[in-house]
Each structure stands twice: as structure tokens, then as C-alpha cells.
């Protein structure tokens, strides 16, 4: 997978998430020890959405972040977009918020929305997968209203600290094992892909610099889970 680029990489990622859609939520809860919903809630808090504001959850998958947004702001207009349609099919069937999200098939590199459409654009575990981070950030900036907020949740390469050996064990063996046991053969490459793509991804500081270079200001980030996860947030200049 690491050797794939451009359209080939996009097609690989899309097919992989379509294949694991049915087991994605359960595997997520297990590999994060149930912590993942807390991180998604933090994403929504950092989006600082006005009560009846508009939010785009790009790479929404099965909708966890979009649903957190509706819990916090029940009158918000929430759009969930993804290029893996099976993931969104699972999300649409999830009660109680599945029918309240406006689901859209979309590629993060070329968003099908007018400029200045949203108060906030959020994403969970998208940036590590895209073929061009600058273009992806540029599109998110374009569809935000001036002063609108971007929030990004993704994994980070494990930093050097006392927990690193344990973290590497979990990444290299724990996660692929959970993926294989719960998701079967179809999921096993997806959960090998997660540690590989995490190790190859930007550090939180590098990602913060890219967010700034894309035309955002007040760029902040918070590292979570011993530095293996980060949330970045910033404002459109
Ligand atoms: C790990 S899942 C995360 C789903 C959800 N955000 C969450 O927090 O559970 C990553 C999602 O990103 C989507 N994705 C990856 N690249 C994309 C792209 N270029 N355009 C749209 N969706 C993309 C995948 O289809 C997948 O549903």
C-alpha cells in the first residue's frame, strides 16, 4: 500500500473502506478501548458551531463525528460526505441521527459545494489517506465561510516516550489482530494499513505548518493517547 500513489491509492482506500463498512464501528471501539467517541466529541467542541450553523463532516464514514455534532447542536445543518458509499449506507441506518445527516458522495480533493458554504469543516482520519494534503486543506478552506473553523482528527507517528514500545506492539500486532478476528479476511489489510499509514504520516507540528500554509490562522493542536492521536483546529483568514 505504501507504494501506491495518485488515483491508484484513492481507489485502494475507497475499496478498503467499502469492504469493512459493516464492522468498522465495532472495530473502532475495540482498538481505541472505547475512547474514540470522546475524541470525536472534542472535535465537535473545537468546531464551535453556532446553534443553527452548518457543518461539513468530510470523510464522515459511518457518521460518528456528524452524530456528535447533532448531539451538541440539534438544530445544526450537518452534511456527511465520503467517497466510500457503503460506509455512508451503514451511517444512514444508524439511529437516532442517521436520517438527520445530509449524506453526499464526494471526494475530499474536489468538494461539490459552493465557496463559503459552511461554518465549520471537520474530518476524522482523512488526512493520512489523501494523495494531496495541501489540495485537501485548500478545498476545506474554500467551502468555509470567512472566520469559519477547520478541525482535523488523525493519528500521529508514535513519539519517543516511555510508552513507545507498548504503542508499537499495539499498532503492529494488537490492531491487525483485532481487525482480523472481528472483520475477517476482508478487514485484515485495512488494519495493517492503519499502522503503516500512521508511521508514514506527518507529526502534529508538521501538520500544523501545512494548515497554516493553506491560509488558516490561530492554528492549534492537542495531542492525545500518549501522542498517537492529534486534533488540530484553526480559523479561515
Ligand atoms: C478511518 S475512516 C473515518 C470515518 C469517520 N470520519 C470516523 O471518524 O469514524 C476514513 C474515511 O475517509 C474516507 N476517505 C478517505 N479518502 C477520502 C477522499 N479523498 N474523499 C472522501 N472520503 C475519503 C474513507 O472512505 C473512510 O470512510
Can I get a quick summary?
With 237 residues, this protein is of the alpha/beta class. Helices cover 47% and strands 22% of the residues.
Derived structural class: alpha/beta
The CATH fourth-level homologous superfamily: Vaccinia Virus protein VP39
The separation of the N and C termini measures 36 Å
- Taken as a percent bin, the fraction of beta residues is 15-25%
Low-confidence stretches: none
Strand order of the largest sheet: 3-2-1-4-5-7-6
The tally of structural domains comes to 1
Largest sheet: 7 strands, mixed
Helix content: 40-55%
Please, could you describe this protein's structure?
Helix 2 crosses helix 7 (164-200) and helix 3 (36-47) crosses helix 4. With 237 residues, the chain is of the alpha/beta class. The chain has a seven-stranded mixed sheet, with helices on both faces. Strand 2, helix 5 and strand 3 (102-105) form a beta-alpha-beta unit. It has a single domain (6-156, 202-236), classed as Vaccinia Virus protein VP39 (Rossmann fold). The chain is 47% helix and 22% strand. S-adenosylmethionine is lined by residues 10, 13-14, 17, 59-61, 64-65, 82-84, 87, 107-109, 124-126, 129-130. S-adenosylmethionine (SAM) binds next to helix 1 and helix 4.
Amino acid at each position: 500500500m505504501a507504494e501506491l500513489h495518485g488515483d491508484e491509492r484513492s481507489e485502494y482506500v475507497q475499496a478498503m473502506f467499502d469492504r469493512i463498512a459493516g464492522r468498522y464501528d465495532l472495530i473502532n471501539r475495540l482498538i481505541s478501548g472505547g475512547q474514540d467517541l470522546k475524541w470525536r466529541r472534542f472535535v465537535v467542541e473545537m468546531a464551535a458551531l453556532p446553534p443553527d450553523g452548518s457543518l461539513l463532516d468530510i470523510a464522515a464514514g459511518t457518521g460518528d463525528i456528524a452524530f456528535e455534532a447533532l448531539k451538541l447542536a440539534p438544530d445544526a445543518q450537518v452534511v456527511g460526505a465520503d467517497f466510500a458509499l457503503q460506509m455512508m449506507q451503514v451511517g444512514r441506518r444508524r439511529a437516532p441521527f442517521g436520517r438527520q445527516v445530509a449524506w453526499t458522495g464526494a471526494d475530499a480533493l474536489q468538494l461539490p459545494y459552493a465557496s463559503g458554504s459552511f461554518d465549520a469543516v471537520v474530518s476524522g482520519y482523512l488526512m493520512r489517506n489523501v494523495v494531496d494534503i495541501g489540495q485537501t486543506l485548500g478545498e476545506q478552506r474554500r467551502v468555509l465561510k470567512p472566520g469559519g473553523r477547520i478541525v482535523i482528527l488523525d493519528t500521529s507517528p508514535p513519539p519517543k516516550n516511555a510508552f513507545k514500545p507498548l504503542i508499537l506492539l499495539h499498532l503492529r500486532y494488537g490492531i491487525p489482530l483485532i481487525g482480523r478476528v472481528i472483520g475477517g479476511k476482508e478487514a485484515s489489510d485495512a488494519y495493517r494499513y492503519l499502522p503503516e499509514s500512521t508511521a508514514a504520516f506527518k507529526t502534529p507540528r508538521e501538520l500544523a505548518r501545512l494548515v497554516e500554509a493553506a491560509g488558516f490562522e490561530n492554528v492549534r493542536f492537542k495531542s492525545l493517547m500518549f501522542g498517537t492521536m492529534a486534533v488540530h483546529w484553526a480559523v479561515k483568514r
